[in-house]
Amino acid sequence: MATGHTDPQRRDRILAATLDLIAEVGVAGVSHRKIAARAQVPLGSMTYHFTGIDDVLLEAFTRYSDHVVALFERHLSAATTPDEAREAVTDLIHTLSENARRDLILTQELYTLAARHEPYRGLCRRWMRRSRDLLEHHFPPPTARQLDALIEGLTLHRALDDAPPGRDLTREAVRRITAAPEP
């Protein structure tokens, strides 16, 4: 097996293995030893690349949040009209909820950490800010904030429902939040 200096993907494998393990066994079931085994790296690589388990977890969850923000960007970037932006938000909600189990677990594990530890709260705040920034390209800031919460809530509800509501309900919820206020 290559050494850390000749294996540039080692750090990436460790972070990917961390997310996979969290999705399988939760944060409480993750350890340096389990991550190293999953990533197929020597145990010493963990302390070479990271200062401790919180460092690994925070970087892994940062990678995950970057992935979700990239989904926001991919869905919203092509929209040029309010109707296209609304449909992009609808598509985003369905995309996020259809890959539900892994993403649902990762998100909820992150939120649990954020409820207890400031570094993870900071990560969540940055993630929400980045998501809202992308939404604000199409909607006013208060609407973007409401949409961000709607995306989160409908994604969670769709992911946990045995018979999740269809696109029409999602589209209607997005339309109601983004409708121009009555004069």
UniProtKB/TrEMBL annotation:
A Pfam family matched by this chain, by name? TetR_N
One GO molecular function term of this record is: DNA binding
Keyword terms, alphabetized: DNA-binding, Transcription, Transcription regulation
Against SUPFAM superfamilies, the record matches this protein to: Homeodomain-like, Tetracyclin repressor-like, C-terminal domain
- The HTH tetR-type domain is annotated at 8-68
- Domain of life here? Bacteria
Q: Identify this protein by name.
A: TetR family transcriptional regulator
Provide the species name.
Streptomyces pilosus
Q: What lineage does the source organism belong to? A: Bacteria, Bacillati, Actinomycetota, Actinomycetes, Kitasatosporales
